[in-house]
């Protein structure tokens, strides 16, 4: 796929995005796997917006493994300098994933959010960190040690990003989180 000429890759990518824009459970997993693999082609940055438009729909998918697959694709994009900032439009959708996702999807979502926080500018890191802090606390008791560790590390990062008037609100979040964090002080993970 990577060795095919750019015009053919672009056509394939556009067809996959078109196929995925209409929910069809018959082909959606296969089409999404191909689309995610094609995100590695850096010369398809013009077509990237089409993928970013359909990702929110598949982050909410009930199909087993679909949200995790999409999150892995977004993680891949956040690691690409040419595409990372464009993924910020998905930030609210990824924060939603922390609420009811399985452990695998939660772990990937936490990694994506960690990357995205580094991309924010101006007052946005502080506001986003404050909004994120409340969503992280329930993950401190997740069954997965990886999710627990990633959520605690991200919580630590969010504490450092809050500035100005939001500091008082963040202090309240920290106080509310002290007891759950204390319970995990001696976890082996």
From TrEMBL:
Which GO terms of the cellular component aspect does the record hold? cytoplasm
Q: Which SUPFAM superfamilies match?
A: ARM repeat
Report the domain of life of the source organism: Eukaryota
Which Pfam families would you find in this protein's record? HEAT_MROH2B_C (PF23227)
Entries under InterPro entries matching the protein: ARM-type_fold, HEAT_Maestro, Maestro_heat-like_prot
- Which positions fall inside the Maestro/Maestro-like HEAT-repeats domain? 67-189
Output this protein's name. Maestro/Maestro-like HEAT-repeats domain-containing protein
Organism, per UniProt?
A: Nipponia nippon (Crested ibis)
């Amino acid at each position: 796929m990577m060795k095919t000429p750019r015009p053919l890759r672009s056509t394939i990518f556009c067809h996959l995005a078109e196929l995925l824009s209409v929910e069809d459970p018959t082909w959606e997993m296969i089409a999404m796997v191909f689309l995610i693999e094609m995100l590695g082609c850096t010369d398809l940055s013009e077509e990237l917006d089409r993928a970013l438009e359909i990702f929110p729909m598949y982050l909410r998918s009930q199909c087993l493994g679909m949200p995790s697959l999409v999150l892995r694709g977004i993680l891949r994009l956040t690691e690409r300098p040419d595409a990372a900032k464009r993924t910020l439009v998905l930030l609210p959708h990824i924060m939603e994933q922390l609420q009811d996702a399985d452990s695998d999807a939660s772990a990937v979502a936490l990694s994506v959010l960690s990357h995205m926080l580094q991309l924010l500018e101006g007052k946005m890191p502080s506001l986003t960190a404050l909004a994120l802090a409340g969503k992280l606390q329930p993950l401190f008791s997740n069954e997965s040690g990886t999710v627990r560790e990633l959520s605690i590390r991200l919580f630590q990062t969010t504490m450092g990003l809050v500035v100005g008037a939001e500091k008082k609100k963040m202090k309240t979040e920290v106080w509310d989180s002290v007891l759950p964090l204390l319970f995990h002080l001696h976890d082996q993970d």
